[in-house]
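Meet our chain:
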Amino acid sequence: MNRTKADDHTAMPELPETGSVFQVSWPVRTGDIHTDRSLRLDAIARYLQDAGFDNLVDRGAMDTHPLWMVRRTVIDVFEPVVWPDRVHLQRWCSGLSSKWCSMRVRIRSDGGGLIETEAFWINIDPKTGMPATISEKFTAALASTAVDQHLHWRRWIDPESTTTPSTETPFPLRSSDFDPFDHVNNAIYWQPVEDVLPDELRSGPFRAILEYTRPIKRGEQVSVQTGTNTLHIDAGGEARASARWFALAPNRNDQG
């Protein structure tokens, strides 16, 4: 499957029968859920971060590959995960290049929840802050499941596109929203998406996509431009991240 020609409606690669698949599980907490007890999008994004960190520790790669930057996250909610429940995550590489990769995470719950995700991650050199080559040893594990061995970056959302009709609202940031590099944590960007998702979309399978353009730093004034099914998170007169969402057909990636 050639992922270089993918767009925002492309189905995600399936769970491989062989290769390196990392697995981890934990209980859903009350801090992760809506008032209706379903798992929030920003909580899902944190789960992806936590699974990625645990995966690096499991592979003994924290010293060689400690810093990764996400450029896009795709979340397909087929059956909501609800509290109280326990989630089981399976994480594997679906696409690979010398300095970046796409990582699939399937989230299932004991109560029948199913969420499929895929994120585009770039390996960053902590000293230079620039994309860095993934080591040969680490590449071998990633390549064991990658369906695309020549992964390229291609935007799915135009950060300059207008959201018509649109509304603009301020998005105040708190000290707890920032990571050790004084950038807004990528999970925080999902909070405005949560605010505008229509209830009718949540009632069936849906896809939400978030692409990051530039980090938001402490002290910047942030606003959200919201349209019918898109939004842009702006700072300094430019879109720093953009999101899009739409309904999915009921068929789902549930093999394996």
